[in-house]
Design a protein that fits this description.
223 residues, alpha/beta, 8-stranded parallel beta sheet, 8 strands, globular, binds D-xylitol-5-phosphate, binds zinc ion
């Protein structure tokens, strides 16, 4: 596994040409980040379950499913069974995070918990032994193209300190507003896995943008 991972989000890619949009990043990206919104946990809706399964099935690279749904305890496992490499759900929406994380892991997929900007990092502490990745949102979930919230990096620093001291190894992912301007500070804070939507798909050459983001992140990351 690379020291840092770049995960392009296809949220703002051209939906009418999704296959060719995904093909643009398949040779350079580590994971394909799939944002699933249900119109309840967040106002927008994106990919249906069937559409998601098709993307997972067709993708040449691992699919990182980010569920922004109101009932993750009921549906998260289905994405894992469908072949998602990792399944992330929101702590705020779950009534039994531990069971859901365990069920995802049982399929062989990576289990991951996300927190919104208003959720304190301490609320994840009970689950650190049951997960493979933590997603610290650096924008309010629901839309691409928002401004990076630099104050969220305090959560990343706290988690990185805990993992360094305890020798634990979950990945720390950041999502929202990651670009050439912000990725270095996020990596310096201790993030090792980076979602980038508009930065990648607004670039003239998305594949080269992934490489540039990875170079910057790797240069600043201290695990
Ligand atoms: C927002 C999504 C993000 C989004 C990021 O709710 O979770 O993955 O696509 O988009 P950018 O990189 O444009 O902030
Ligand atoms: Zn996302």
């Amino acid at each position: 596994m690379n020291a840092v991972r770049i995960c392009p989000s296809i949220l703002n890619a051209d939906r009418n040409n999704l296959k060719s949009e995904i093909a643009k990043i398949e040779s350079s990206a580590d994971w394909l980040h799939l944002d699933i919104m249900d119109g309840l946990f967040v106002p927008a809706t994106t990919f249906s379950f069937d559409e998601s399964v098709e993307i997972i099935r067709d993708s040449k690279i691992p699919v990182d499913a980010h569920l922004m749904v109101a009932n993750p305890d009921d549906v998260a496992n289905a994405y894992a069974i469908a072949g998602a490499f990792s399944v992330t759900f929101h702590l705020e929406a779950s009534s039994d995070p531990r069971s859901t994380l365990k069920a995802i892991r049982k399929t062989g997929a990576k289990a991951s918990l996300a927190i919104k900007p208003s959720t304190p990092v301490e609320s994840t502490f009970d689950y650190l032994d049951d997960l493979d990745m933590l997603l610290v949102m650096t924008v309010e979930p629901g839309a691409g193209g928002q401004s990076f919230m630099g104050d969220m990096l305090e959560k990343v620093r706290t988690l990185r300190d805990i993992f360094t001291q305890s020798g634990r190894g979950p990945l720390i992912q950041v999502d929202g507003g990651i670009s050439l301007d912000t990725i270095s500070e996020a990596a310096k804070a201790g993030a090792d896995t980076f979602v980038a939507g508009s930065a990648v798909y607004n670039a003239t050459n998305p594949s080269e943008m992934v490489d540039s983001l990875r170079r910057l992140a790797a240069a600043s990351f201290k695990g």
